[in-house]
Each structure stands twice: as structure tokens, then as C-alpha cells.
């Protein structure tokens, strides 16, 4: 069983792939286009007994590029399978807030004296020519096509060998990416290179299908770490929109996410928005959609949802998950769609009525203390 230090964090780095040009060996020019990740959804299924994590992810990119590639380092050759996109919709339905319907009556204390005054309510640069590299420095472990993706898993002894292979296959290589990959390559992790093809049409966005990477690890995690700069200043337009990340975490208990210790002292800005065990029918449906054995998502599995809307993202380290000490259920506040009825309470009238009641009560109490007056016969003495 691999130890924590020997287990590679599956870290996804998105890099802009080359625009196509005449398919000849002499084609060595890469043109860069604006590129950014606009939204991400991920499902993590953690099997603690087997130390196996299913990492399932989909993303929407904002880019004018014809295709987009990304690379994933893992401690060993990962198992790649497709997953049904329905799982995201299914889980979104589970964590959605309850909707309250019907009538709602609200009271509003209101001084009648204010009536006369009125009352208002508001509310890609040129690429270097491929260099020569020894076959011993880089090895192709596997080649696979899955979910419309060409996936190649590599073993690289150094980042120079890796850069040569990526450039030769029209992936964009930057110094920032080299710095980001250096720690992983130094530890002998496998590198899997993917390429997404853009759908037809003129829309600038590109959406990916769900891809399930299954691997072993001692601690479940989300690949949050990113290169210092995914694009060089002046060569691409940065993404100024709202970047969103939602992680659905399925495990035997409620989990809490925490960014790995880093020199900058950054903390993960993601927040838990839902945490609760799912019932048998939901567990069975999720396992079926993900094509997993039923024992991977048994009845009573905890579903914990995290939202991270930070942009720019502080991706200086990966996010690891551990048992949440609270283990308390968390559900979002209900969405109130009831018809509101406002009941106005006249404060002035209530105050006057209270004063009158107090006066009347005091008078009655005084009368009771005195009691009935006796009739007195006055005698007048005779002369």
C-alpha cells in the first residue's frame, strides 16, 4: 500500500493546445488564444477500505481555441472510464433547498400615527522546434481513447523530456507549467495527457464530458493546485467572469476539506453547503449512473457538497479531505415561495387599550377593598 508521501496528488493543469495547421512534420508554430476555466463540477467517491478514489470531473472553458488539452499526474497508470452527465443533475437535485409553498402570514407592528406621514417598504506564442530526447527519458505507458478524448500516459525522468514530447504533440509548454510539474516528475509520477476537441459552432465556450479517473491514495483530495500563471501576461485575455467550483463528496462520513500546508499560508475558501446521509434509492441511482458496484455507494453514504466561488483562485496547494469532527447534518435554508399575507398590528390602539384596561382593573380592585357601605340612621335628640 503506498504511503502518503509516495502517493501522487492527481493535479489537473489546463494548458491551451495548438491551433491546427497543415499536418506536416514541419509544422512547429503554435498560436495562443484566450483561455480560462469558467466553471467546474466534480464528484469524488472515496472507498476508505480499499484506499481508492474515483475522481469524476466536468468543466466549461472560455476559449477561442479549436481544442484544449490538459495533463494529469498520478502515482500509477490510472483507470479511465466515462461517466454519465446525469450524475451532476441528480446530485444537484439532492442538495437543492426545499421549496415552501402555500400561504404565509407575517405580522408588522405599525404606529397608526405614521399614516399621515406615509409608509414605504423596499426592499499562443511560437513554439520551439522539438529537441532530441533519449527514449530512456520518457516512455509511453498506455494509449487510450475515452469519452472522445485521446489519452496518453507517460513516464518521464525529467521535465525536459516531458516538454519535448508535449511540444511534439502540439501542447503548449510554458516555464510556469515546467515549475508546476517539477515536483511530480521528480517523484516518478505518471503523466497522462488529454485532448478535448471543440464542438461545432461559433460559441466561445467548450464543455467536457464526465471522465472517471480511478486511483489509489491514502488521503482523498481534489486537484486544486495550479501553475502560478496558466498564461503569460499579454498573450491571452484573463477570465474576468465568475469562476465556480462545486465538489460532491461521497464517503462513509461527513468530510471536511483543507488546503495542504503551503508557504503562503493560504486556506481553502470552499464552504460546505450540504452534508447528510443519502437514502437507499438515491445511493443505488448514483452507483448505477456512475457504473460503480453497489458497495461503492452503499445505503447511508454521506453526501457532502462544497462550493468555491473564488476568482482568482488561490491554487497554491491541493485540497485534502478528512473526517469532519462535527458530523452534523447540514441542509440549505428552504426557498420560500409561499404567498405572503401582511397582518398590520396598530400599535397605538393596542397601547391605548392596554392603558384603559389597567385603569379599569385598578378601579375594580379599589372598589372590592372598600366593601359595601353600611346604612347609618342618624338620631335627632328631642328637646
Throw out a few tags for this protein.
disordered N terminus, 383 residues, alpha+beta, 17% helix
Structure summarized in a few sentences:
With 383 residues, this protein is an alpha+beta fold. It contains five helices and 20 strands.
The structure class reads alpha+beta
Overall morphology: elongated
Total beta strands:
20
Order of secondary-structure elements? EEEEEHEEEEHHEEEEEEEHEEEEH
Poorly predicted runs are 1-34, 112-131, 199-205, 230-239
Query: Percent range for helical residues?
Result: 10-25%
End-to-end separation: 132 Å
Our count of domains comes out at 1
Figure out the total of helices.
5
List the helices and strands and how they pair.
Blueprint: E1 13-16, E2 35-47, E3 52-63, E4 67-74, E5 79-83, H1 86-95, E6 99-100, E7 103-110, E8 138-146, E9 149-156, H2 159-168, H3 175-186, E10 190-197, E11 205-207, E12 210-216, E13 221-222, E14 244-251, E15 255-259, E16 271-277, H4 280-289, E17 302-308, E18 319-323, E19 335-336, E20 339-346, H5 347-370
Parallel strand pairs: 2-14, 6-19, 7-20
Antiparallel strand pairs: 1-4, 2-3, 3-11, 3-12, 4-10, 5-12, 8-9, 9-10, 13-18, 14-17, 15-18, 16-17
